[in-house]
Design brief:
By secondary structure, the chain is an alpha/beta fold. It contains nine helices and six strands, in the order ααββααβαβααββαα. The chain has a six-stranded mixed beta sheet with strand order 1-3-2-4-6-5. α4 packs across α9. The radius of gyration is 15 Å and the shape is globular. The two termini are about 30 Å apart. The protein binds uracil.
């Protein structure tokens, strides 16, 4: 099982930090029949303490955004590319993305979401490359709120590229921009 494998993932650069602090890996949470999968970046401290994705300040913003578009949190699946908390919530490294990416790939194959909504530039970069959309990659300042049609092994899917909810944690004025981008999800 994915959780068991990650628990003993000693080759991860984040393994020592997790065990030292008695943190949990954050595998993902939600509806296994979900049409929409959200992919964030990496767990923060609250998430690592509980093992649940988006349960801290960024999670509160995500809840607000889901509410805004009338999508119940219980109807979607929420995960991250990197499954362990990076120290000081720094950006994930390319090695960390390489180590944890295959687990996300397996989650996608298992859950077969029709829509993958990426939160932030790291998830966007990983998912767009994975689904052969490299040529359409733009800085997130341009890509936010856009959607792309592509193919997964199990059929046609749409990728929606969204800003990370932490944008509104750092600056609450950004909530309106995030809300507008989330409205893209209503098309699916
Ligand atoms: N930020 C993320 O990218 N993921 C979480 O689970 C929490 C905060």
């Amino acid at each position: 099982m994915i959780r068991d494998e990650i628990l003993v993932l000693k080759e991860s650069p984040l393994y020592g930090f997790r065990t030292e602090h008695k943190y949990f890996p954050v595998i993902g949470e939600g509806n296994h029949e979900a049409k929409i999968m959200f992919v964030g970046e990496a767990p923060g401290q609250n998430e690592a303490k509980t093992g649940r994705p988006f349960c801290g300040a960024a999670g509160k913003v995500l809840d607000k955004l889901l509410d805004h578009v009338g999508i119940p949190r219980a109807s979607v699946y929420i995960t991250n590319i990197v499954k362990d908390r990076p120290p000081e919530n720094r950006d994930p490294t390319s090695l960390e993305i390489e180590v944890y990416g295959p687990f996300l790939d397996r989650q996608i194959e298992i859950l077969q979401p029709k829509v993958i909504a990426t939160l932030g530039r790291y998830a966007m970069g990983y998912i767009m490359k994975k689904f052969d959309l490299d040529l359409e990659l733009e800085p997130i300042s341009k890509a936010h709120g856009k959607s792309y049609k592509t193919k997964a092994s199990y059929g046609d899917i749409d990728i929606v590229t969204l800003y990370h909810p932490c944008m509104a944690v750092y600056n609450p004025n950004n909530i309106d921009l995030l809300k507008k981008d989330f409205e893209t999800l209503k098309n699916f």
